[in-house]
Each structure stands twice: as C-alpha cells, then as structure tokens.
Amino acid sequence: MNFIDATRKGKEGILVLGNHPQIVQSILDFDFVCGKREPSVVAVIGGARRAQKFFFGPSELLIPCFADVSKVPQGLRGKIFWMLNVQSGRRSFDSTVSFFETFPHALGGHLFAENIPERHSTELIRRFGATKLLAGPSGVGFLVPGYLKLGAIGGTDAAMLEASKLATEGTIAVVSTSGGMTNELIRAVANAGKRLSFAISIGGDRFPVTSLSEVLLLAQSDSKTKAIVYFGELGGVDEYEIVELIEKKKLTKPVLAYVAGIIDEAFDEHMQFGHAKALVARPSESARAKRDALRKAGALAPETFPEFLARMKKLPGTTVRDMALPMDALQKRRASVLSTRQVVDLDETPIFVKAKKLVSQKEGFATKIFESLLDRKLRSPSTAGFAEAVFGLLIDHGGEVSGAVNTMISARAGRDLVSSLASGLLTIGPRFGGAVNAAAGQWLDGVCGAESAAEFVEKRTKGGNLLAGIGHRKYRVGIPDPRVAALADFATLLKQHPYYDFAREVEKVTTAKNGSLILNVDGVMAALALDIFAQCEQLSQDELRELVTTEFFNALFVIPRTVGFIAHFMEQKKNDEGLFRLPEELLFVRRKKK
Fold first, then answer.
1. Are residues 148 and 100 in the same domain?
2. 11, 88, 283, 409: least buried by Cβ within 10 Å?
3. CA–CA separation, 564 vs 184, rounded Å?
4. Which tens digits make up the pLDDT trace of 119-128?
C-alpha cells in the first residue's frame, strides 16, 4: 500500500493512545498552519476525563476522550486512519493490538515509548509489519508536509514548524533511526533550500516494526520523492539494507547518508552510544565500515557532517514558494479558565415581541408558572407573552457570571446536580440577579411618592447607596443591552406605563453622570412587570406591594437562570475535564514581609 499517497488523499485522522498534551498540541498547530479546516486529532484514549482542551489556531477546542478504543463511537471511527501511541513501553503492545483490531482499515501509527519489550516488538512485526506503517518504537514519528504530523516529528513548538517549512511539499525524503536526528535533518533540509516529501523516524530500539528497507522502498515508489537523506549510527546492520537495495537496483534514487560514530575508534573497547543497537558487536558494524560499504554501492556517504550538509544543497529539487503561515494567530493565546458556551443567543429579539405584535402564550409553561406564583389565572395575553419573553431571555448570560462559575466548579469537583445547582443559586443576591425585587420596590416607591426622577436619585443615593436596576459593567450609553431593548418593546403594548417611564427618567439622570449607569435588565424587567400587572391583571398598588414583600420579582430571574445553571452543569459533566484548579498566574499572592 502507498501510505503516503493515501495520506495525501485525505486519510489523516489520528487517534491518540495515552496522554502527551505537548505532542498533541504540536499536531494541531501543524494542522492549522497547513490551512486545514478541521484538526486531524479525532479523539484521545485514556484517563477519566471525557474531553481534553487544546488550541486550534487562536481558538480553543475540546477533543473527546474515551476509556478505551472500543468506546469510540461509530460516528468517529470512519475518520480514524492513524494511531499515535504515547503510552508506556509495558502498555504499548496491548493497546496497539486493540487499536488495529478495532480499526482494521487504519494505515498505521507511531510507537513513541522506549524500551518496549523485544518480544512485543517482534510480535508486532509478525502481526502488522507487512500491512501497516508503524514508526518506532523509540522515535518521533512520521510526517507528510501539509498533510500529516504523527508525533513530535518536526518539533513541538510552532516556531519550529515554520522554520522547518513543514507546510510546503518537496522532494526529499528524510529517514533515520534516531528521533532527535530526524528533526535535525528536517531542519537541515529546509536550511539547504529543499523541502520534504516525507520524513520518518524508524526508531532507536533493536526491532523497529517497519524496517528501513520498507521505508526506502516507500520512498522509491513515491512520485514526489527525488532523493533520500539518511542518518545512521555505529552498530547494527541497517546500512547494509541500503547497500543491498542499491546493488539489486530496487533503490535507484540518490541516497545521501551520514553514519555517525567514528569516535568509537578512539576507545580501547567499543562503547554504547544512545540507542539500544548503537554498539559495535563486530567490525562490519563500525561507522567507518558502513560508510565504505555505502560508497562502494553508489550512495553519497561523506566523512564529515559539514560535508554532508553541503552535499544536501546539491540534491535534486525544484525551487519552491513557501506559503505564508498564520503564525500571528498562534502567538499570545491563553487558555480559558473554564470551558463553556453561551446557552442562548442574546442578540436575537424574542418571537413574542417581533414587529410589536404579540403572540398569544396562554397555554405556555411560563404562563403556568406565573399563575402558580400569583395564585390566579392570567387575564391578558400580554402578561403571558411577557412571562415567556422574560424566561426566554434570562435562561443564560454566558459562563463568566458568578452563578454559572460556581455551578461549573462544583460539577468539576464531582458534585451532583442538586448540589452544583445550589452552589450557583446561592450566589444570587444584590450584586447578581437578585436586584429585580429591589428595583420593583424602588420604582413603586418613586411613582407612588410623586417625586421627580432627579429628587428620587438624590434621595436614594445619599451616603453612597446604589440604585437597584441601574448600571452595567459591559453595556453603556451607545452600547445597549440587547435584552433591555427586546423587553422594552412590551411598553408599546400598553396604553400607559408609568413605572417604565419613571425608570427611564431615572436613567436620564444617572447616565448624565456616568455613561455606564444605564437601565439594566433587572430594572427594565421590574418596571414593565409592575406596569403589566397593574394594567393587564388589574392589580392594585397594595397587591403590587405584597408581591415585592414576598420577593416575587426575584423569581423572574431565579426560575429561568436555574435552567441555565443546569445546562452548564450538564456541559461540564459531558466534558468531564476533571477537578478545577485556578491557574497560579491568575492569583494575586500577598507575600509575607521578612
């Protein structure tokens, strides 16, 4: 199978086995700078979480997590063609076998761990060596520029991806047993003015699953590859595989090879260098002997590394034009403290008041709630419509508000629905959502007292007291709260609206002092509720006062927001990102004086 062509045709989806966020993020950064619309990482296996947070460009995304490969839903299975196994050496065999049993259509994968038991490696060769492309054990992975980054290959920092020109297809195949040197060669190819067709780190353990010969034949059959750059070490017989392929004319493309380890000749006895097989066991495994054999077969095998780099510039390859990478989008990004979404669209005018034409809501659930709280049947469809609009608008206002935060943190701590909901509801008070009732009492006093708005403000704010229903941290004059604008349309359904008018007069006074002291959603909701109950439901001022005394108006916020808190709770349980801990950089720590 031509694994490279299959990858170039869109078979790029990766299932990650184990936890290595830095490598996964580097894959997502590669995907983004290559212009992909979707990330190649489909899911992660391992841990108790149900999702793991990463960046795709400047935006965050949650990658789903599953306990084992059998739990991956059918809807995702068809997208998965590659395995990135970053589990420990003792676990890699079982998880790799499980992966290919579950995804028989998969093309291959990468085994990141070192020191996988040799009997496991040889069994993987027996099972999958002929049908899958498996980089490793003990390497950095497999790369097809512009299409697939499977592992730490090419680097784990976004700047490294740019410097190595990994978004541009080229003509040079890079092959090495060494993971570190694979990355060095990738950069060297870029510095030589060439670009990669593909790169693979076979792995430094004694028994790589996909052999050097198989990779070289893959390069030979790849139409885009014009030359091969190889880095080897003393010890082992890999280089003699190259010699044999060249002599049998199975490998006809130019091979530039460097075999490190001449320094071994300076010691009285052979030394172990790095990888498991980097030890000379017989004279033919020395760096000098392997260089000589490569030259005799027709490969380029320079004596020094600088000469090796100089020869790289002369390899075949056309001049290419690198695409401009969106690196600015990867700079200064900062992870959110909590992963959440906005449950409702706050910019949409509710259907109940569009075109100033009321839709009857006599049989709606909100109507039943109002009737239960008022202990009477509603007389007017305007009241029913107002109930539906209020409850629809106030379900949620994003995940940053205190009640939602408390609910989410409790959910992340493993608490149940009722406990998490209670922690969110307990934040409701004068500073968050609990000002509706106070605003209603305030507007009732102002209208009943026949005071001017200026007198009312002067009296109420003496001594630094705040006005309920006035002021907003986000909105101001010229930037109105869309919820206030939507509810304000209800005033057009009434012949008279003294409470709403009074609240607006107060707003004129307060915004003259400070543009952020606008009538907020608590204030407009309280004023309109008073007008609607007085005119449409025929409630007297005494009956309105009784509603204030029993905190009826705060229920207008508590009831719908309970639904929003539950939505946030369920989202956190679904994502299951684990126990929340505030990042240290967001804390102000007062140091003790010495």
1. yes
2. 283
3. 52
4. 999 999 999 9
